[in-house]
């Protein structure tokens, strides 16, 4: 497992966004190619830039990481990741329920795999902490 040197991690919480993106009833999951979360399946997303609205950040991150166009439906929830042995950073991740709008995944260098899966399949994949519960909340918002 690759680790991030502690001295390169900001000493304050970072705000991030992620998208539980559904195409009909299938969920897009992506596998991280580098820390934090290297080799784990998660949702597309990333850090919010200064002055950027959360929804703008999610559209940008999804386009950068996957090339997809999405429709953001609603905030599904949030998750706080505290510094620990797996990762030295402190993150507040705002997760949105979203629908696929257009495109096929074209991954950038931050990701090394993707899958469209039934949400119940998450338990068969190595995934980031809290992912199944967040996906379940997003699916409810979408009526799935």
From TrEMBL:
CDD domains in the record: NUDIX_ADPRase (cd04673)
Protein name per the record: ADP-ribose pyrophosphatase YjhB (NUDIX family)
Domain Nudix hydrolase: 12-141
The keyword Hydrolase is annotated on this UniProt entry: yes
A molecular-function term among this protein's GO annotations: hydrolase activity
Keyword Signal: no
Taxonomic lineage: Bacteria, Pseudomonadati, Pseudomonadota, Alphaproteobacteria, Hyphomicrobiales
InterPro entries tied to this protein: Nudix_hydrolase, NUDIX_hydrolase-like_dom_sf, NUDIX_hydrolase_CS, NUDIX_hydrolase_dom
Family to which the UniProt record says this protein belongs: Belongs to the Nudix hydrolase family.
Source organism of this protein record: Rhodopseudomonas faecalis
Keywords from the named record: Hydrolase
Cofactor(s) needed: Mg(2+)
Pfam families (UniProt xref): NUDIX
